[in-house]
Amino acid sequence: MGDTPEDSFEVWQEFGGFYDYVGVKSAKPGAKVYAYFSDPTTEVSGSLPIFMASQFYGAGRVFFQGSGEVWRLRAGGDRYFDSYYTKLIRWVSEGRLLRDSNRGVLLVDSDRAMVGQNIALRAVLVDDQFQPLTEPSVTAKLLAPDGKIKDLKLTPAADSPRGGTYTGNFVVTKSGGYEIQLAVGDALDEQLLRQSVQVRLPTSELERPRRADDELSNLASTTRGEYVPVDESTAMSEVKAKLAEAIVPQSQVTLLAGTPDSAFTLRRNAVLMWLIASVLTFEWVTRRLHRLA
Q1: Integer Cα distance of 20 and 5 in angstroms
Q2: Tens digit of pLDDT for each residue in 175-212?
Q3: Which residues lie below 8 Å from residue 134, measured CB to CB, with a gap of 6+?
Q4: Minimal CA–CA distance to 166: which of 124, 106, 196, 105?
Q5: Buried b / exposed e across 27-54, counting CB within 10 Å, b at 16+?
């Protein structure tokens, strides 16, 4: 609602909240939940009620808002209320607004993401007769920030009420700008659908630079390890000793059939040498005794 994410966060922090909500059973497959109703007394089976969620549908999006009390934003200024609904309507109708091609539309579930986040793609395409495309799959190009190009395979959506709808996803692994390009049509009438995603590194560690001792301890116990905290008062020799005690030797002996054994070869050759020498000596002694030599 503000000019920057920080301004928007501050507005929501100062907002008085909502007093009621419309209950829903659960999120549908493929839906993305953005907010829950935070009143702990409304929790059911360990889950809070869904308050804001969206999902791709057809050539656009649908958005669920669990209350009509957004008008309370006017307590901080009418511009916040107007900005919220203006941006929401533009975002939901993005599929129609971005339809610069009569052959289809390409959508992403989020045009801003954090490193490691999964981005869902949805394309609604028609053929040259403007009928839903019936190809078993289509291939888009993903241009990464480092200049590498990767193929993205989009397959028909199982939850689509009409044909010609294809879905896919990819994981953003680097910060920077990603661009998705999907060529539709033949060589004489090829059209290019584009979408972009801006990715940045998570800033939670920079905003809250503290060590999560509880999470680290739980992780160590879950993986049958030992959590050794390091503080200014902790001597490194003590830490090294604890680590040495905690690391259990995992030595093992593996027998590989057919692998040459140099020690066995040496012993075998020595035995053969002594055996040959003994036979020759026995022959020479026998010949001497019988005066054959």
Answers
A1: 26
A2: 899 999 888 877 667 788 888 899 988 766 665 667 77
A3: 127, 163, 164
A4: 124
A5: eeeeeeeeebbeeeeeeeeeebbbbbbb
Go through the domains of the chain in sequence order and give each one's CATH number.
5-97 (no CATH), 104-200 (2.60.40.1930), 211-244 (no CATH)
CA distance 233 to 237: 12
Question: What residues are paired with 52 via a beta bridge?
Answer: 35, 65
Pairing of strands 138-143, 32-36: unpaired
Total-model pTM: 0.47
Within 13 Å, how many C-alpha atoms sit on residue 156's CB side? 12
pLDDT digits (tens, 9 = 90+) for 197-254: 999 887 666 656 677 788 888 888 888 788 887 777 778 888 888 888 877 777 888 8
Nearest in space to 102 (alpha carbons), one of 190, 196, 167:
190
- With contact defined as beta carbons under 8 Å apart, do 163 and 129 qualify? no
Backbone CA torsion sign across 126, 132, 138, 144: positive
Residue 139 near residue 153, CB atoms below 8 Å? yes
Token readout for 13 is 């922090």
Nearest to 153 by CA among 169, 164, 133: 169
User: Cα(242)–Cα(236) distance, rounded to whole angstroms?
Assistant: 10
For 22-66, write each residue's pLDDT tens digit. 888 788 776 788 888 888 888 877 788 888 888 877 656 788 888
Report the amino acid identity of residue 42.
Answer: T
3-state secondary structure of 25: coil
Phi and psi for 140 in degrees, rounded to 5?
A: -105, 165
